[in-house]
């Protein structure tokens, strides 16, 4: 399964790079009026489909990591450091985002999921969506480069396979661990979509205000997710971390407050 997960991430990176390169090439051809051997509309469509397949590939990688957690595959260093055999199944699932490598994988998967929805709804405004899709592909490439080269979640534990894992930090063994981080990530990552639309509108000098109405729907949904995540985090801090209050103005809380504002 670690091999399958690593291959899925590598495939996702190749697809994201293709989506970025071909999407950018098609937009450049449309903007300059030039045409190569392949029509820009066809290039744009292949880039869109590559973006859709990126979601499938990252989903396979996320499934592989969760599968390794539930099957107690301690040959994977990440699973060894963040789970053990006695851990409740809900916390084994939440191990996906309990460490840096898993959090980056969740971030990349959510970004791919948002991109998947955006690309399925491309007929709302084909050209604007093509710009937004290419920009999202660029963001996706960045996170997949981290996952493939800087923080691979499927690194193999050196030496013999341990009989049991190190377990999850006791402070993280709380029901809101299962829902609070995904809510925050849905908010954080979701704001990449309004950013992509806004930047695309600037690049193509979009006439009228239609792009604002399209972007507003995405913004309100992601802002709602971030709001829920902040409230859950405040309750978690009060109940578990012993700060004596719901808000401590620490860097983590401030990092969620700034985009919310």
The end-to-end span amounts to 41 Å
- Shape descriptor: flat
Please count the helical segments: 10
Name the assembly state.
single chain
* Helix content bin: over 70%
List low-confidence stretches: none
What does the model show?
By secondary structure, the chain is mostly helical. It has one domain. Helix content is 71%, strand content 0%. The chain is built from 10 helices and no strands. The chain has helices spanning 2-32, 40-70, 77-82, 89-94, 100-120, 126-150, 180-190, 192-204, 210-241, 251-260. Helix 9 packs antiparallel against helix 10 (251-260). It is flat. The relative contact order is 0.12.
Write the layout of secondary structure elements.
Elements lengths: L1 H31 L7 H31 L6 H6 L6 H6 L5 H21 L5 H25 L29 H11 L1 H13 L5 H32 L9 H10 L1
Helix pairs in contact: 1-2, 1-6, 2-5, 2-6, 5-6, 5-7, 6-8, 7-9, 8-9, 9-10
In short:
The protein is mainly α and 261 residues long. The protein has ten helices and no strands.
Key words describing this protein structure:
261 residues; mainly alpha; 10 helices
